[in-house]
Design brief:
Length: 344
């Protein structure tokens, strides 16, 4: 049996030759699967993320059903914030809601650094999973400092990031100190997962597309780089993904990733032109296209596979997460099609 470090996904992330393009889906462990809804019924999200048995089952479900080339740990980007004592809840239909937003230096003082002792259930879940997965790699993940800061400063999801941008520009000292603390938390969370056996990690910066490139490079990039540096020397490739980040792709790559995730708004061809040959790319089928007739899905999957052939390395994924109403059978067909269309 091959080891996860020799898997198609890890080799593609390292820009090495592969026999077919590897594929996994963001948010594959969860909402679209009826078996997920069955085991999660009546269990709040944060509670589910702290139960290694449940995390293991949910993480394995899409591997069993779809035959994807990697599992991704079932968790949430705010799990480490809750672990260090932030009073928050994941509200169905809304997302993370923070009881007392971070707006002042005193608020920052309530945010301690993360240690492995804060998240023993993560270590246990990853250990259980890697034993079950065998040669299939497990992807660990964390939220990037900007996105975590936005949740903390806004108090929940925001369309405008008004308080976040006001703090960033109005009190840059506090902003940088907040993001440095969050980079420690994210980096330590990634390191816990890699130490327990994750073969790849992904840093999610869901909201960073709200920024200009100049603001990204001044206020965000150093902290994302610090978070990604948390797993340096551990032998795990790093994926850096954001939404609406076509303008930021080179800067995100420069933060330290081996793989740059590309959302559906930017073609892989354009992404590779902007990034050069120093990075593999991941993406980027529009998740909404999974609701179109199969001939439309097939044409777009084949187009993306073909675009990926011209990249230094390509991991097929959606351009954002699986939507809850997605037909799971379509995802299974996409996996088979990617493997068939990309076979060397």
């Amino acid at each position: 049996m091959t080891s996860p470090s020799d898997s198609t996904l890890v080799r593609a992330a390292r820009r090495q030759p592969v026999e077919h393009t590897p594929v996994w889906f963001m948010r594959q462990a969860g909402r679209s699967l009826p078996e997920y809804r069955e085991v999660r019924e009546g269990i709040p999200m944060l509670d589910a993320c702290r139960r290694p048995d449940l995390v293991t089952e949910v993480t394995l479900q899409p591997v069993r059903r779809h035959g994807v080339d990697a599992a991704i740990l079932f968790s949430d980007i705010v799990v480490p914030l809750a672990a260090v004592g932030v009073d928050l809840d994941i509200v169905p239909g809304t997302g993370p809601v923070v009881a007392k937003p971070v707006r002042t230096r005193e608020d920052l003082d309530r945010l301690p650094e993360l240690t492995p002792e804060h998240v023993p259930y993560i270590t246990e879940a990853v250990t259980l999973l890697t034993a079950e997965l065998g040669s299939t790699p497990l992807i660990g993940f964390a939220g990037a400092p900007f996105t975590l800061a936005s949740y903390l400063v806004e108090g929940g999801p925001s369309r405008t990031h008004t308080h976040t941008k006001a703090l960033m520009h109005g009190d840059p000292g506090l902003w940088h100190d907040l993001c440095a603390r969050l980079a420690q938390i994210s980096g330590a969370f990634l390191r816990v997962q890699a130490a327990a056996g994750a073969s790849v990690v992904q840093l999610f910066d869901s909201w960073v597309g709200a920024l200009s490139r100049a603001d990204y490079e001044e206020y965000v990039q150093p902290h994302s780089a610090s978070a990604l540096a948390g797993v340096l020397g551990m032998g795990v490739p790093r994926i850096h993904f954001g939404v609406g980040t076509g303008e930021l792709l080179p800067s995100m790559g420069a933060a330290g990733a081996e793989v740059v995730g590309v959302d559906f708004r930017t073609s892989l061809t354009d992404a590779v032109a902007r990034l050069g040959d120093a990075y593999a790319v991941q993406g980027n089928l529009d998740p909404a296209l999974l609701f179109a007739p199969w001939d439309v899905v097939e044409a777009n999957v084949r187009r993306i596979v073909e675009e990926g052939r011209h990249a230094p390395g390509h991991i097929f994924n959606l351009g954002h997460g699986v939507l809850p109403e997605t037909d799971a059978d379509v995802l299974t067909r996409v996996v088979a099609l990617v493997h068939e269309a990309s076979a060397r």
